[in-house]
From TrEMBL, chain B:
Belongs to the binding-protein-dependent transport system permease family. LivHM subfamily. Pfam families: BPD_transp_2. InterPro entries: ABC_transp_permease, ABC_UrtB_bac, BCAA_transport_permease. It is a multi-pass membrane protein. One of its GO terms (molecular function) is transmembrane transporter activity. One of its GO terms (cellular component) is plasma membrane. Keywords: Amino-acid transport, Cell membrane, Membrane, Transmembrane, Transmembrane helix, Transport. CDD domains: TM_PBP1_LivH_like. Signal peptide: none annotated. It is found in: Cell inner membrane. The keyword Iron-sulfur does not apply. This is Urea ABC transporter permease subunit UrtB. The keyword Cell membrane applies.
UniProtKB/TrEMBL annotation, chain C:
It is found in: Cell inner membrane. Residues 367-406 are annotated as: Disordered. GO terms for molecular function: branched-chain amino acid transmembrane transporter activity. It comes from Marinobacter profundi. This is Urea ABC transporter permease subunit UrtC. Pfam families: BPD_transp_2. The keyword Membrane applies. Keywords: Cell membrane, Membrane, Transmembrane, Transmembrane helix.
Amino acid sequence: MGTIEMTAGGRSIGKGPGFRKSLMTLAASVMLATSVQAAAPATAEVNTTGLAVTDDSVTVGILHSITGTMAISEIGSVQAEKLAIEQINASGGVLGREIKYVQEDGASDWPTFAEKSRKLLRQDNVAAIFGAWTSASRKAILPVIEQYNGMLYYPTFYEGLEQSPNVVYTGQEATQQILAGIDWAVKEKGAKSFYLLGSDYIWPRTSNKIARKHIDKLGLKVVGEEYYPLGHTQFNSVINKIKLKKPDVIFASVVGGSNVAFYKQMKAAGVDFTDEKPLLLTISVTEDEIRGIGGENVEGIYASMKYFQSLDNPNNREFVTAFKETYGDDMVIGDVTQAAYLGPWLWKAAVEKAGSFDIDKIREVFAGIEFKKAPEGYVRIHENHHLWSKTRIGKAQIDGQYEVVFETEELMEPDPFPEGYQ
Amino acid sequence: MFDGYTSSELMSIFAMQGFAGLSLFSVFVLMALGLAIIFGQMGVINMAHGEFMILGAYTTYLTSGFFQSYLPGLFGGYFFVAIVLAFLICAALGALIEWLMIRHLYHRPLDTLLATWGLSLIMQQAYRSIFGAREVGVELPEWMMGAFQVTDMVELPINGLFVMIIALSIAVGVYLLMYRSGYGKNVRAVVQNRPMAEAVGINSAGIDRATFALGCGIAGIAGAAFTMIGSTGPSSGQAYIVDTFLVVVFGGAQSLIGTIVSAFGISQAQSTMEFFLSGSMAKVLTLLVVVGILMLRPEGLMALKVRR
Amino acid sequence: MKSSSPMKWFTSREGLYYLALAGLLVVILPLALDPFRLNMVGKYLTYAFVAIGLVMCWGKAGILSLGQGVFFGLGGYCMAMFLKLEASTPEATAIQSTPGIPDFMDWNQLTELPWFWEPFHSFSFTLLAVIGVPMLLAFIIGLAMFTRRVGGVYFAIITQAIAAILTILIIGQQGYTGGVNGITDLQTLMGWDIRSDAAKTTLYFVCVGMLFLCLFVARFVQNRKLGRILVAMNAQENRVRFSGYDVAAFKIFVFCLAAAFAGIGGALFTLVVGFMSPSFIGIVASIEMVIFCALGGRLSILGAVYGALLVNAAKSGFSESFPELWPFAMGALFIGVVLAFPNGLAGLYQSYVMPLEERLFKRKPKIEAEPAAEPEATPEARKPAVAATEARDYDPMIEHYSPEKS
């Protein structure tokens, strides 16, 4: 890996790269030295590409579905992004400028996502876009954002196999989430056989492919692999198959409404997850989903992700309190919501390091940018635009929260094109 | 795939698989009966059927919340109250919709499709505004969870049994209502010959409204029952619509018995294939077989013999 | 056709309607809108192709298909496959384990191009397939259904099921089809970058040109005896059958025609938007397309174009200003159109604007009697007053689709 593939659209602005670079590092060091309270730098200096930056404000875009079938999942991300923007504004903004946002609705419809991202980039000239949730919506936005050289901060854990110079992936890619989870199940729980189950689309299929390769490498057995159409609500047959095959672990990546049906029917079929026979390890059920499924139906399942609301660290306590103060006490925060919250903060850090809102200058400083106040602990941007992050295993409690039972010691390296797993 | 299993294990698996088929069957019956009444008896295509079901589910959700806060002692029985409420609320809304919208469209059945599609958009967004975009979790009383141990291996889910009982009682109820009551006689008279029915003094407008309300009410009960096995969210209703229509059309639109037969056939085919194939392929194959049979026998399995 | 010369036709009333639409699409919109908005109009226009097909199929012949998205999608996928192959040169895909095949295939461990992708290296084959594949499927469906006299509601629901089947299949076979993401990141058409503003504007005009071509084909069909048989079939199917016509053949024909239009629309959609995904095949998309047609006026091919433009413009407009309210507005629009204006915009135009025009131009009553959509009736059909009032008040839905009759 190492370098970032500059595919179509990564046009370079400016003349002498060397000159620009030295100027930029100079600006960056000045910025760091004088910190934020210094007078805001002149707009002409920090914005050479016509973005929507004025002397006292900068405009960004938020692009999620707030109507349609995906609204269920995406609303948490919108809330987190708005909260981060408010907090940044309260602490003095970015380069002394207040962040304003334009929110657009992707309406769970992929061409709408493409259309709206084009609008954000062409008409509103936004300095960054926080948005997209499903892989399909990201794939729809991608050509647009590469063409107009925008920057997308994408919050969802996803299948990998992508690395665009115009996207920062603040969620985990598949190997980060899966490998540690399976290793844990094998080491801690002595798992020998696995049943892979998912909704029928690219993320579960790719995830299960990686899982299968990893299980093969460990010399263990996959006893079944199964996909159901999105929105499927009848799982009795597969539950019988699972009972027949008696796997040690069900590795589940069922999404959306199917999730609710699957766990309710498992429970009803007499499967008590707290027995861990079989143990259920999921990569798709966050606290958000549990609200719809009901804590009593998932009590005892394990999830492998990078963030749980119950994480016990000062950053997270602060974040959870702020989130609940803003949106109400009954809110829950899932993995993706936290990843969405990282977006504006990472963008702010990059802008301040680059001393400029210009996309090309920001891109050059991405590698190594840290966010120490991240609710998940600490994250750092990898050269491949994904985040170094820890992977954790949580055990679902009846109140809908996860209890963290395991956490990787080191930050996991993101590897969107994993050798040997394709 | 059956190597290494004892015959008793296999027997139990087959028993449970049979049960899975039956519970899918009762789900289909619940979904389709309301639609069969509206579509078969009135010729109205109600695309908002799924949304009426979700209205029933939300009613259950609210009832459970109410019992939890005010009558925790009676929580175990809230579900029965919820079913009755779901029926009443959906039927009332159905009657209102009939009065506002459907009655103007009886002579244009394809247009009811478009209008009710608009209605379904409005209902979905209304749920989203009222209950939020996220799915809500409906808590079940303790006695409805878990399974009923028949032998060591065979476990029958209690809520599956419960759905079956509801489906059965509603099917019997609808049968009695349609074929053994004065109202049913009137409905059938209107279906067969509206002018003649009116001529002998049947209030056909009233019959229409009652029938539409009944269909919507049954959808509400179905929705209430589905909170036990499925999700309750603003757009959950859409997941049911294709299956539901296929069941009704496959059975022969005007025959309630046909609806039940077709629900049985489709559910058994699907659950058997799901056992031997992967989920997606089973679904595709089931739909293909149904479409194929419909092409050979367009009037459905149990059509009324009508002159063409 | 009584119009002897094309020039004369353009000054006729119908000709003026076409000129007005052409003026709007070719002159006014490109001047008034920036390239971004114009591109959006181009996207809306691709739906208009489907709507024109639906006017022929549903409005005229009374066959309601809830699966037009299938044909739109097939046309779109054919084009997308060609563009994807062009984008997947061995150089561009050098980082893959098998260079030279589309990226999603590589992710799914395919090591060579599936056989049905091979022909899509050829542009001429692709152009044929864009029309041919949807028509072939329509022919098979039509042959199976119409010869067995499946009609009305049954046909609608079966087409809906076909849309569901195809969606599940495409999503499930992601190694061959790109799955739920669809076929994305299409860049060039025969070396021509389709993503630049200039290209998008050019594509817009291509869309407009193709649209008029389809409009003229549709108009040609509807003004021939063929078109009148379709309408007659809708009103009194048995009488047409007893007169010796093969009703099924006519139905298959018009269904294939609608499929071909939808296929062209889909291919242009792929070019204009730059990707294709299974969500356009699904039920929701298919029903929306019926709505475009219903709003414009199910009997008027010009109305269908306006319907597609207006519904989509309203959708974009509402969702930009009131994102949480737009489904209410759309729902209300559908209900309103069906309840209050069953003949859509074209019907409104006929009842309210046309009389004004009469007064303005002092036309002769004979021409007044002709509705916009069918102004050029041939002599044998011309019983002016009666025919026209019938056509105007004629509602093809009345009495013909109740299940008791089908």
